[in-house]
Design brief:
This is Sulfhydryl oxidase. Its EC number is 1.8.3.2. Residues 63-164 form the ERV/ALR sulfhydryl oxidase domain. With 175 residues, the chain is mainly alpha-helical. The chain contains 7 helices and no strands. It has helices at 10-15, 41-48, 67-83, 91-107, 111-122, 132-149, 160-166. Helix 3 runs antiparallel to helix 6. The radius of gyration is 19 Å and the shape is globular. It binds flavin-adenine dinucleotide. The site of flavin-adenine dinucleotide has 24 residues, from helix 3, helix 5, helix 6 and helix 7.
């Protein structure tokens, strides 16, 4: 969940320009300016238009992503990586994959999401990568941790492979 508008690292806050009028949910980036990839675009719209309503016209599809668009694309990439992961990965593949996940969590371009994800991994949730199913379930649990944080439904991790690899058993994804 997005922190309040003044939730940014102290040093960076000190370097910031005079604070813009921020609406609820707008998160600042390291430069002290509203961070689009950390914020729902509706909150940014409410701030720039000076309204309290978050209703906004749909943006064209070729605009920079907000936190939700970035998240959907990122989960698609991450779950698709687990879907293509070997059933019996080599030790080298396992090591590379763990390193990738740790690096991904550091580089994720929404700083508060990245911080929480790193903390989740450090608290007994290191990547489990010894097989495709294990990695797929671990990714599902990682995604569920964010779902819970955002107050969304928890996904049934017993069905991760249907969602991201084989398609649903009812055949609706077949062609
Ligand atoms: C590492 C990471 C951290 C994030 N942290 C934050 C944050 O702190 N604050 C914030 O506002 N946003 C965060 N996001 C974005 C957030 O998770 C969502 O992507 C965003 O809110 C859009 O949600 P959505 O409802 O469209 O679907 P998404 O949550 O993006 O899910 C896309 C699709 O994945 C499937 N799915 C859902 N849950 C699971 C699961 N557990 N396993 C497998 N498949 C599943 C569903 O079919 C769903 O439609 C984060 C994203 C990532 C990748």
């Amino acid at each position: 969940m997005a922190p309040g508008p003044i939730d940014q690292p102290e040093k960076e806050q000190a370097d910031a320009n005079p604070a813009p009028k921020l609406s609820k949910g707008v998160v600042l980036g390291p430069d002290g300016k509203p961070c689009r990839t950390c914020t729902d675009v509706s909150s940014l719209f409410a701030m720039t238009k000076g309204t309290t309503t978050k209703k906004r016209p749909a943006l064209p599809t070729d605009c920079p992503p907000d936190v939700a668009q970035l998240g959907r694309s990122s989960w698609t990439l991450l779950h698709s990586i687990t879907a293509q992961y070997p059933e019996k990965p080599s030790s080298e593949k396992q090591a590379e994959t763990s390193t990738f996940m740790k690096t991904f969590a550091k580089l994720y371009p929404c700083w508060h999401c990245a911080g929480d994800f790193q903390e989740w991994m450090a608290n007994g949730n290191a990547p489990r990568v010894s097989s495709r199913d294990e990695f797929g379930r671990w990714m599902c649990e990682a995604h569920n941790a964010v779902n819970v944080k955002l107050g969304k439904s928890v996904f049934d991790c017993g069905r991760w492979e249907e969602r991201w690899r084989t398609g649903w058993k009812d055949g609706r994804c077949d062609f």
